[in-house]
Amino acid sequence: MRKAIGVDLGGSHVTAGIIGEDGTIVGQHELDLEDLTFSAVVEALSTVVRKALDDAGKAVAVGIGSPGNIEPHTGIVRYSPNFGWEDEPLGPTLSKRFDLPVLVANDARCATLGEYTFGSGAGTRDFALLTLGTGIGGGIVAGGELLIGNRYGAGEVGHHQIRPTDGFICGCGKIGCFEAQASGTGLIRHAYAVAASFPRSKLLDVPRENVGSKKIRKAAQAGDPHALAAWKNFASDLAIGVANLIAVVNPARIALGGGVSSAGDFMLDAIRARVDELTTMAPRGTTEIVIAKLGNDAGQVGAATMAMRGGLTTKPSLQGDDGS
Ligand SMILES: [Zn+2]
After folding, report:
1. Could you tell me whether strands 25-32 and 13-20 are parallel, antiparallel, or unpaired per DSSP bridges?
2. How far, in Å, is the centroid of ligand 1 from the Cα of 150?
3. Which CATH superfamily is domain 3-112+296-309 in?
4. What's the CA-to-centroid distance between 157 and ligand 1, angstroms?
5. How far apart, in whole angstroms, are the C-alpha atoms of residue 18 and residue 24?
6. How many CA atoms lie within 13 Å of 75's alpha carbon, on the beta-carbon side?
7. d(CA 174, ligand 1 centre) in Å
8. Minimal CA–CA distance to 92: which of 108, 104, 79, 105?
9. Which pLDDT does position 317 carry in this prediction?
10. What letter would DSSP give residue 161?
11. Cα 160 to ligand 1 centroid, rounded to whole Å
12. CATH 3.30.1370.10, applies to 124-293
């Protein structure tokens, strides 16, 4: 079976998976990132990819999912606010080191390709993935094609504004972006926003840096009134973004991933009715809303799939099996 290396480049660590053509993960290597300058990240990527290549025996290519606006056909990172990079030749630099094709694309688009091909999107032709983490990463498949956009910005669902007058300030500078309201970080902000109504609540009685969305989600699931109030506002904002996505691309299925989605039915039940109310131009109840299947592995699986196909595409490779 052909194999490729699929890399998920995050803001704090990098994971390189050895991925088979059928989407199976054969092995994984991980490294923490301390220095986010381009040269330091290239060194870290080289180290972890080298280990994965040694383990893999033979790999046909390397695929990297990186945050930022990225030209998939050149592998150039046009800009990445997470790293503070502009016009960095990530693909070409690594390709020289490994003497293998190195393909680079946005991490959320890679995750979407992974989920569409081997996970929660399989069997559909119109699919969207929303990953609810520190921000909201997204990707859209329409009519069987992964949307890239004119300048590689299609699928940046996290930065459409849903509360431009009364929302939280987003990392991008706008007010009330979907990701400011409905990511894991958004859930924490909702907990602080309603805190005055729960003077006896112990939910936030720790330093702010120790408050994670997991704590609030679990407290909500356990019935804590403060956490439930935050959860209700979070779910209401999440429903707005999901309904907007239905209005724009009318997918057959929307998958929700990321840490917050561990709540499963507790989250889906909290948004479905509101999504229906807000869906006015597509038949209500016809968009399946599900939990994503591949979890944190979606990005690596998608990046490796891109590498094997020679591009960020939903079309299976035309190359034959090379017998490896
Ligand atoms: Zn934003």
Report:
1. antiparallel
2. 19
3. ATPase, nucleotide binding domain (3.30.420.40)
4. 9
5. 8
6. 20
7. 5
8. 104
9. 66
10. B
11. 7
12. no
Ligand 1 centre to CA of 238 (Å) is 15
Q: Which residues contact 26 (CB under 8 A, 6 or more apart)?
A: 3, 17, 18, 19, 20, 55, 56
Helices 107-118 & 298-309 angle (0-180, nearest 10) = 90
- Angle of helix 225-249 relative to helix 265-278, nearest 10 degrees, comes to 50
Residue 283 CB neighbour total at 10 angstroms: 8
Output the pLDDT for position 241: 98
Tell me whether domains 3-112+296-309 and 124-293 share a fold. yes
- In the reported structure, the alpha carbon of residue 283 is separated from the centroid of ligand 1 by a whole-number distance in angstroms of 29
As averages over each run of 10 residues, the pLDDT of the chain (324 residues) reads: 96 96 97 96 97 96 97 95 95 95 97 98 98 94 97 95 97 96 98 98 94 96 98 98 98 96 97 97 96 96 97 78 43
Residue 249 CA to ligand 1 centre (angstroms): 20
| C-alpha 222 to ligand 1 mean position (Å) | 31
